[in-house]
Write a structure and sequence with these properties.
The protein is an alpha+beta fold and 300 residues long. It is built from six helices and 13 strands. The chain has two domains: 117 residues, START domain (Alpha-D-Glucose-1,6-Bisphosphate, Chain A, domain 4, 2-Layer Sandwich); 152 residues, Regulatory factor, effector binding domain (Multidrug-efflux Transporter 1 Regulator Bmrr, Chain A, Alpha-Beta Barrel), CATH 3.20.80. This is GyrI-like domain-containing protein.
Amino acid sequence: MKKVLSGFLLIILLGLIWYLFIKSYDYTVRFEANTSPGAINQTLKLWDRTLDTIESIEQKGSLYHLMQKVQFNDSVHLYHWKIKSLTDSTSKVLVNIKDVDYSFINKVKVPFSDTDFEKRSRKTVLEFMEYLNEHIDEFKVTIIGEEEMPSKYVAYLPIKATQFKKADEMMKNTSYLSQTLLHSKTILDGPPMVEITKWDRKNDSLEYNFCYPIIRSDHLPINTEIEYKRIFGKKALKAIYNGNYITSDRAWYALLDYAKTKGIQVEPHPIEIFHNNPTGGNEIEWKAEIYLPIKESLNE
């Protein structure tokens, strides 16, 4: 009995040492959301701009882990957001929270009372949940599956921008691209497209070609900023995105998660085809086709 009791006391002692001195957080909040991890990642970064943060939220290694520092009066709270995909359209979020200056006293109080720290933590996460749910209502992603991406000859402008500024840069260049082509009587061959050539998912930066599909001819405008190429058709994963084109990248993340679930190797270079003039109407009715090219097998 003495050995059993000694062992039991040792386990309790080790548990207390871990809880009070080793455990890296003071409190945890969990919730589920009806969207993909990528959409949560991007919404977190936008929401972070609205807070009194000491520094910008930091992505830790992957889009599934983010670290955030928030100032509350004289306290600095660390929020470690962990996101996990549950299905094609649902995710689980775990938030480990720590008070930088009062961590020890919080750990002592948390098991015995509902502290101000706990209340503040729940309130902050709830505020984000409300912000996220409002955003989720503003767009829709429908996974279609494998499909052949169309081949198009395009006139394009190469652009560098952040993901959030992608649509703004398109709007800035629409008039120049369309008017130059119209002036030369170039025949259009479909709605505008975007071809992502480089996607830095840690820093949310892009290099992409803003394209107008055209009929190739010998009378295309030259000595301009416009370049020409053919985007070749290939097997791809396809999704339909409905919503403001500023956040069409939500479909990119959904396709990445779908590819991972299905064990499909893809190239992280989405292609978007925009079917609406993004200047009016109900944004949820705006439509874009999103393609994520499938890597070609060496055996093919």
